[in-house]
Write a structure and sequence with these properties.
By secondary structure, the chain is of the alpha+beta class. The chain has helices spanning 3-19, 32-35, 55-67, 96-101, 116-121; strands at residues 43-47, 72-76, 105-111, 127-132.
């Protein structure tokens, strides 16, 4: 079974069952321009991949998200051995200022684990970031 089909099925089940969200899409990169036609996307999620990209690719995606007028951006960076809670690209550049340069504001930054001992010693103790761009509110 194709990885995108498996991911799509998992996300649909998880979001519908636990978050009462009925529609989700996972789109391969070669079909990303098809997303540009959709004006109903309110949340973009990036889990670990911005940390594995150079700043140029991060900029590519933030630019796409901005052009699509997506109000919320949720990011979970890789933690790694030297992780200090920052948004760092593969080429070691902090990309939080890049996101903010597009008008997105950080509204939530919190530990993955709420218990400080688990956050320190648990599996992949990263941070959760939620940004929003208020002037993209859809009516």
């Amino acid at each position: 079974m194709n990885i995108f089909i498996r991911l799509r099925l998992f996300l649909r089940y998880y979001l519908k069952e636990y978050h009462k969200i009925n529609q989700v899409s996972v789109v391969p990169i070669n079909q990303v321009n098809n997303l540009m036609k959709n004006q109903n996307i309110s949340l973009a999620i990036n889990i670990h991949s911005f940390s594995e990209m150079t700043i140029d690719f991060v900029k590519f995606w933030i630019d796409k998200i901005n052009k699509m007028k997506i109000q919320y951006l949720f990011i979970v960076p890789n933690s790694g051995e030297e992780y200090k809670g920052d948004l760092i690209s593969f080429d070691k550049i902090d990309f939080k200022p890049l996101i903010e340069s597009y008008g997105y504001n950080l509204i939530v930054k919190r530990d993955k684990y709420l218990n400080p001992h688990i956050q320190k010693y648990g599996l992949n103790p990263t941070m959760y970031y939620l940004f929003n761009k208020p002037n993209f509110i859809k009516g």
